[in-house]
Write a structure and sequence with these properties.
Blueprint: E1 4-7, E2 38-41, E3 44-47, E4 49-50, H1 56-65, H2 70-86, H3 100-109, E5 110-111, E6 116-120
Parallel strand pairs: 4-5
Antiparallel strand pairs: 1-6, 2-3
Helix pairs in contact: 1-2
Length: about 130
């Protein structure tokens, strides 16, 4: 039986160092936000939450924390879940039933960092 080893792509920390460069591959993405995933905007870094691996309740909680009301947070949670796990998107710009302003807001607050295959092993009979 063959297996694939996956690892999340490296992101830079505010200090500019590559935190995953020498680390061992992970078997699956973390189910919680990684505080080291940041992007710089001016003088302070903005922490983005990776939505991959979060439950619907956790996604809804992040949307409520952004200031969305209960009804909109419930609707956006369904949309995000569908686009991420049913349609397999990796960019918010591809969410055609979500307004441009909302897509931009999602892009500023969240990540869709899927793990990448770093080693694919194929058995003698060709199965993966």
């Amino acid at each position: 039986m063959a297996s694939s080893t996956i690892s999340k792509k490296s992101t830079e920390t505010p200090a500019g160092t590559d935190r995953d460069k020498d680390s061992a591959p992970q078997s699956c993405p973390p189910a919680h936000p990684d505080p080291l995933k940041t992007t710089s905007t001016g003088t302070s870094p903005v922490v983005k939450t990776d939505l991959i691996g979060l439950s619907r309740q956790e996604i809804k909680g992040h949307l409520l924390a952004m200031g969305l009301d209960e009804r909109e947070a419930r609707m956006r949670t369904k949309q995000l879940w569908n686009w991420i796990y049913v349609n397999g998107i990796t960019e918010f710009d591809r969410m055609s039933n979500v307004s441009l302003a909302t897509r931009k807001l999602f892009g500023q607050r969240f990540l869709l960092a899927r793990p990448e295959v770093v080693l694919e092993q194929v058995s003698d009979d060709g199965t993966r």
